[in-house]
Amino acid sequence: MTEQVIGRVAGLWRYPVQSMQGEPLSVATLTETGIPGDRLWGVLNPAENKTAAAARGKTPWRNLIQWQARLKREPSAAEPLPPVMIRLPDGGTIDSEAADRDTLISAAIGAETRLVAHTAENQTYGYAPLHLLTSASLKAFTRHYPSGRFVAQRFRPNILIDCGETEGFIEQDWIGAALFLGESRLEVHEHCDRCILTTLPQGDLPLDPGILKTTSEINGRRAGVYAKVTVPGRVRVGDELRLVAPVSRSAA
């Protein structure tokens, strides 16, 4: 069995609150449930009695993608659900430890709602704890739609792999393969289908329906892959990603 170096980790992210922008990390310990602190919280959509999803819902829930969340402390055995700090587009902040947090969230959303904790029973992404994306895919999308800003922020991966000058949807060939990443070992098990969330404005990125249109037309809505952690371990920005399986690379 041979190992093939694919590239290096260019970015690590977790998303403490579902549908909100996440926080970049320089190092993370990958566990069987992914990156600790990822999607621990959500905002309730009372009409559906479940966590609001910016991709599925309409205004005001789509506005959640313009909010940014970061954990105030690292998760631990003593505190598996640490508090979160939310930054609003106008620069205001909401602290999950504050007594008036739900009042502030409701006012900012424009609808009655509250912050809710995700548990093993209602965890949305338990089946796919890690989303991997390569620069090779972003280059391929850009070639077909040069005016679109195909950046990691649009696609919300946990791990971005810099593959140098390589271009193409190389992740497609990783299904069923093993990956070594830092001290961890992963198993790729599913394609990642993208949705309207990739088109929504956030930060300095504008509304751009062409992002999803391009993703759909040239790669069947796929952007990256989902992976499970089979051997937990630490990963850092700059670590090599090594593929353990013979593959044939897909062209864009």
TrEMBL record:
* GO molecular function term, any single one: catalytic activity
Top-rank taxon, per record: Bacteria
Pfam families per record: MOSC, MOSC_N
Locate the MOSC domain: which residues?
A: 102-244
Classification via InterPro entries: MoCF_Sase_C (IPR005302), MOCOS_middle (IPR005303), MOSC_domain (IPR052716), Pyrv_Knase-like_insert_dom_sf (IPR011037)
Query: Gene3D superfamilies under this entry?
Result: PK beta-barrel domain-like
Annotated membrane-spanning segments are none
Q: What is this protein called?
A: Molybdenum cofactor sulfurase
Origin organism is Hypericibacter adhaerens
